Amino acid sequence: MNNVSSFSRFDNGPMSAHGHVARTIGIDIMAGTYRPGQRLSHETELLAQFGVSRTVLREAIKTLAAKGLVAARARTGTVVTPPEQWNMFDADVLSWKTAQGMDQQFHGDLTEIRLALESRAAALAARHRDDGDLAEMRAAIDLMRSATGSRRQFAEADLAFHQAIARASGNVLLRSMSAVIETALVASFTMSSPIHDMALHELNVSSHERIVDAIEARSEEDAAAAMLSVIKGLAHWRDLSDRD
Question: Could you tell me if 129 and 123 are in contact, meaning their C-beta atoms sit under 8 angstroms apart?
């Protein structure tokens, strides 16, 4: 996944007509405008609201259904499904969740899933990595170190780093979980950033560098431990930012 296009998903930039409709309704669902079990507005109302064709609207509804947010019910119409049926590992669903705000519980959930997945990815990367993988990780580290004036640039470099590790793991399922990483990093780059504190910035970069060192040394245990340290450090920093 290209890290620049990944972040553009959160910018609310140009998108297809049906993508815009799906995103708007999806955010409304997550914000509680539509409650589980509630029927979506009548097709005529939605057509007037968005000013799109019936074909575009129906394509948007199909997109929402494929992501588990709505379901067609006989004699009822299209209704919102319970949150447990939503595909929270879908990149768009996660971006919509970010757009309507993430509470402490969701931040905690993200941290827990990252601790489980990324520590394992780092260990597998130590086992399977090649020189090309290491070069990608080192290049991302260099970009993180030079990103002292832009939170976005720092977050994009950070994302590229974690995606390089996921690719190096050799596990296709771990690679596909990068949307979780992406969402966590987007959330962090919208808050106070370590780039505004040079000592904290260098500490953050160095902690990522230790992951690469362990992967290069093919030390699975050290790579996993270094990754856990980075993720826990981000969670701690976020908690401190929330208190300010």
Answer: no
Q: How far apart are CA 219 and CA 81, in angstroms?
A: 45
Structure tokens at 176: 């596909």
* CATH code (residue 225): 1.20.120.530
Does residue 146 sit within a domain? yes
Lowest mean pLDDT segment, chosen from 1-10, 11-20, 84-93, 144-153: 1-10
Question: Which pLDDT score, from 0 to 100, does residue 3 have?
Answer: 43
Task: Tell me the pLDDT tens digit for each residue of 192-211.
Answer: 455 567 888 899 999 999 99
Exposure class string for 155-183: b at 16+ Cβ within 10 A, else e: bbbbbbbbbbbbbbbebeebbebbbbbbb
Where do the DSSP E strands lie in 46-165?
70-73, 77-80
Range of 40's domain? 3-84
* CA–CA distance, 206 with 188 (Å, rounded to integer): 18
- Straight-line distance from the first to the last Cα atom of the chain, in angstroms, rounded to the nearest whole number: 34
For residue 57, the domain's CATH number is 1.10.10.10
Contacts of residue 3, defined as CB under 8 A and 6 or more positions apart, other chains included, come to 156, 157, 159, 160, 163
Do 59 and 121 have their domain in common?
no
**What are the structure tokens assigned to 160, written together?**
């590229």
Neighbours of 213 (CB within 10 A): 14
pLDDT top residue among 164 and 3: 164
